[in-house]
## 1
Amino acid sequence: MCRWLAYSGSPVRLDELLYKPANSLVMQSKHARLGVETTNGDGFGVGWYGTAPYPGVFHSTEPAWHDRNLRELASQASAGRVFAHIRATTGSAVQQTNCHPFRHGRWLWMHNGLITDFPTVKRDLAMAVDPELFPEIEGSTDSEMFFFLALTFGLEMDPQAAVAAAVGLIEDVGRRHGIEFPLQMTVATTDGDTTWAFRYSSEGRSRSLFHNTDVATLRAQYPDNPMLQKLSDNARMVLSEPLGDLRGAWHEVPDATCVVVHGGGEDLFPFSPATA
């Protein structure tokens, strides 16, 4: 599987997220605590919003802990909305076009999990992608296919409904092929202003997902913590596993839930697939 984080708030340098925390994403690339695999060394990616009208992305097939270019970029670049992902492939090739986050216009998408027995269902799912969108699929992963199904079902207009429709289709196709549990997912997507994150699995035993406690509350509890002093009150993170062991800093996202982060606020909604 994989590990990821989605950050929004005051601009932070990328190394504050990727390297400096005790359980940073780069640390998780070698020693993940809550993932299916301890090592996530099949490439990584970072997406961020700067001055361009679309997000920047940086992908590499190097293990995150080994890539000098990532360390150099992270020590200089800063942004107020960051998506970062470390990959452990479930079977597709280790190549840059298979690294998350994926991009379409202003949208970013990243996924931890899998479409079960993807080679068996791949053709049926590909045929459901909007023909105008299909040429934009660059890689061979189930995660990118999932993204383009969500785009087909209206991600840019109603992300919660679009992801529910895509999940419903994936489960329907999988079960028609005799697959008992067709999907495992934590997903994050953003248009640069709002982040939507989803935790769900067909089996009801989803991969880990957390969100942070209100920063102002934490700052009052830990006035001597230097990282908390740097963050604005509206700083929010949704991530595969906590970046550290600060008591009270993290809350687990319930299974079958969508988290919506906008500005300094966040809302949790029940999530379920849409049925045909």
Note: Residues 77 and 130 are 35 Å apart (CA to CA).
## 2
Amino acid sequence: MSAEISHHWPVPPREGYTVDDLLTLPDLPPHTELIDGSLVFVSPQRDFHSIAIDLLVHGLRSTVPPELKVRREMTVVLDQRNGPEPDVSVVRAAAARSREQTYFQVRDVLLAVEVVSPDSEARDTDTKPHKYAGAGIPHFWRVDMAGEDQRPVVHAFELDKESRVYVPIGTFRDRVKLSVPFTVDIDLTAIDHL
């Protein structure tokens, strides 16, 4: 006789969840995000997703100035109803206060990066960039897997502060070379060796 497995799914409050709920609810799956008061659970990621994040984190850390830090998969509090988790973030060093912290405030984020996955394509290409721009994050990168070699393609955007929308500043296939938010030089073909 096998034991019956029971699941206890959280019941959302009438007004939806808040960032406080996201940060304190027990037993949420890893990488749970809060979008418009709803909890979003992430499905298992492809190998490309993992190694693209590794490549970008290493590349950004190689040139990041001391007043900034590079972090992966940390919640960014946009407002009380939105706590997405960019795949990579560049934050002000002063915001990294403790090894135990689990989130950053949006005012401390200079760059948010999303590596597109099949289950998150709409969120990574529409919902999250729209929310990041509305919250004032100055730079956004969307990373897609492209071509037969399945290498990353980085689409870089900069915030138009008046309209609060992102404008494209470049698409990079083999190498990301930018001067904003700091000098960046990342060899995207290095993914072949990861």
Note: The longest helix spans residues 47-61.
## 3
Amino acid sequence: MERLDDLETFVAVVEKGSQAAAARHLRRPLQSLNRSLIALERAVGVELIKRTTRRSEPTEAGRMFYERIKPAVAEIIAARNEAANIRGEVSGPLKIGAPVLFASSYVAPIIGRFLKLYPNVEIELKAADDQVDLVADGLDMAVRIGESVDEQLTARRLQALRVVTCGTPAYLAEHGTPKHPDELGSHHCVLRAGGADKWPFRVGGKLQAVRVSGRFHSNSAAAIRAVAGEGIGLAQLPLWQIRELVEQGTLLIVLAEFETEGMPIQLVWPPTKAPLERMRRFADFLANGLKTELL
């Protein structure tokens, strides 16, 4: 009967593209990994991996074998990890996604402290501003700023971010400081790509979406911040992204009395994925960390 380690090795080689990459992923010596592959091929009775000096690709039989065993191997590994969690151990890998700026400013430092607390946990952080497909990207969970576009995901609200409207002193001196959201129609605005041409405000106690327009659009928060800092137009951004510029006087906040309750920060994961103990521990740790740092 094939050992789980041999099957796990085979899956890793197929997915990583080489024995060296698979060995690094599994944290096993290359020689040990090669022995597992040989043992599996002997047990199955057919060549599964075609080996070259640089690449290791599955044969036709290997590809078919991979497609059949991958779900079962994943389930067995998950069951093994859950059993370890029942024993009170917090260990194993986590793949987490987060927006680029937020990942480097907040998520990564919190992950660093979490790894010190739990030395048997391994975390891979994927930073991307677009809301990626968690299942397709192999993510266990992801930090989302704003409402998630996928309502099928399980979500936990962590915190809310103050969102402000801002512009440079030079821009406001030339174009005037808006006193009401209705005045934004006569202003240039720096916008997020993807049709985000309406900004939310609370007017008279009611939420109101105000249409805005501008000559620059980007899916990068860093790019929006940079262009707004050049005085091209007004921008609407989470305060944490521009706090330093506001404190320096490079950007000025306008329409503060019309701000909404803020932009939610959520931690999301696939509904089909039962949270492991390490996922639950990290969710609590992240929530507490953000509560302390996002005052």
Note: The radius of gyration is 25 Å.
